[in-house]
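Data card: per-record layout.
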Amino acid sequence: MNATKPSIVYRHRTGLYVNLTNRCPTACVFCIKGKWKMDYGGSNLNLDGYEPAPAEIAQLAATAYTEKPFNELVFCGYGEPSMRLNAVIETARLIRAGAAAPIPARLRVRLNTNGLANLVWGRDVVPELKGLVDSVYVSLNASEPKRWTELMRPDARYARNGFESVKDFVRTSARLLPETVITIVECGQQELDSFKKLAAELGVGYKVRARLE
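The structure for this 213-residue chain is written out next.
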């Protein structure tokens, strides 16, 4: 375990990232948290079971903004943020209510997710994000279910219907939220072409992410 104090918020490029939880319903083959020993750019993201409350996150974010303003708040750590859906919603509400001053109430808020929240919570959760989350980046990584299962390695509870559920999540996000993007880790041209086609079918943008080693 990294001996340094766990980071609940950490900076990446022009954003402040929120490390909500280490729990995740997938064990992706390209995940680097094991290889990097829960470290990211010098930040220890091993919460060791601790999960911060929205008020604590808002306070830490406000302090960070005072030190150096950031352009967006991103829910993304070494875990799946939607495992703590209520914390995502409440933290975003605090931002929107101006309760994390000097952070602007209309600061861009993004959720990075694997898109399995509907299966995890047993309902369509996207309407609950409307007006709170500006952008959703969904780590889909494949254009068909078999490849998705091979890459994402979902918990058995989500394996059978996972791929279709993620697509449903994306479709609803595209309809209700300002921006929805599906992402894929660097891959061959044939798979990328299929992924681009899927993005067009879903009515969303796509982004290729570098494979970290």
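Known properties of this structure: The helical segments are 54-67, 85-96, 117-121, 126-129, 145-152, 156-159, 162-176, 189-202. The CA atoms of residues 38 and 45 lie 5 Å apart.

See the next section for split statistics.
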